[in-house]
Amino acid sequence: MPPSRHRGRGLAAVEAPHPDFELLFRSAPSLLAVLDASPGFRILAASDAYLRATRSAREAVLGRPFFEAFPESAEGPRVTGAGSLRAALERALASGRPDALNTPVRGRDGRVRYIIHRIDSLELEVLRGARERDDAVREMRAAQDALETFVQSAARDLRTPLNAIDGSCRMFEELQGASLNGETRRLLARIGVNVNRMENIIEGLLGLSRAGRIHMARKRVDVSAIARHVVAKLHNHEPERFVAVEIAAGLEAWADESLVSIVLEHVLANAWKFTRRRPDARITVGMRNVAGQAVFEVRDNGVGFDMSHAERLFAPFVRLHDGPEYEGHGIGLASVKRIVERHGGEIWAESQVDRGTTIHFTLSGPGI
Questions:
Q1: 159-168: pLDDT as tens digits
Q2: 115 & 165 share domain
Q3: What is the CATH number of the domain that holds 318?
Q4: Counting CB atoms within 10 angstroms of each CB, which of 201, 219, 294, 305 has the fewest?
């Protein structure tokens, strides 16, 4: 009888409430993720060890497609191992057979419902890198938002005293007009010129801020038509000038139309401005294909610049040519650079003093 009583206690222990399998899974020492059987392989569960190793919060990863952590690069999926990992998961899903890292789990109907995936050391390195990248992007966006808020606030604060100065000078000139001598008139004119210059700088700062905030909506953009429209406005502004402008037909880009307009407005305005001394001023807008990528070019025969200063060309507030003949505030090309980079492209310049300048830019990364 005693042995029977012992067996009864063992049976009672077996029939006790089931273990908390979710708790057991979360507490497993291995780096595990449960993926659903969809093409996106969404993360349905993750062990605590996985979360600690990848420095992730559970709520941030659950429901997220697994391959968001494996960014593809221009060199292709092999760079991060995403291609081989996806192929392994797809094989496990199709065959229902486990491998070293993936264990399919079948439902009652015999179909694969989940895949328990174990993360290895190489994969962990990629996941950590992706996490650090995401953190860096968030910090950069926060800094950019703070900078744009400052620019908006500074623009408002600067405009109030500028308007007061401009209004006071105008009122003084109207009240004392007949009695003003030549020197006083020159001083008032200088104040007016500098007020206008500050207004242009403020507008430039706001434009630089807007270049980073405008919502991008890519579509097929007629670059040739935009360039013709910009050149027509430049002609209307200086109808006395003759500039031979050649715009290639059929130029197109997959980009945001309003942002492309800003790019061409600044680049063509610069070409127009810096050919002012040329009796045979010429501007050419074209495109060439380099390794399957469209590289747009705006070429002029203007004053050019020393290529030792090329790195400064797209920096804010940098002007390579001073003097009243070449008006500007040094912010336009900085805005252009920001827009091009938002499109995943690049911008650079080639120039020779007294021979002209060519601005090259792309509007997408390689292969797009």
A1: 788 888 888 8
A2: no
A3: 3.30.565.10
A4: 219
